[in-house]
Amino acid sequence: MTLHLEIINAAYLMDKTTINNLNTKELVPKMVFRRRLTQASKLCIELMYQINFTQGRVMYVSALGELSSTAKILNAILNNEGISPTEFQNSVYNTPVSYSSIWHENRSEIMTISSGNNSSDRLLKLGAIKALDGDEILLLATETLNIPNIEEINKCIEYLECAVALKVKITQKKQTITVENRDKGLPQSIALLIEIAKKFDKNKSNVIGVTL
Question: How far apart are the C-alpha atoms of 141 and 48, rounded to whole Å?
Answer without folding.
Answer: 12
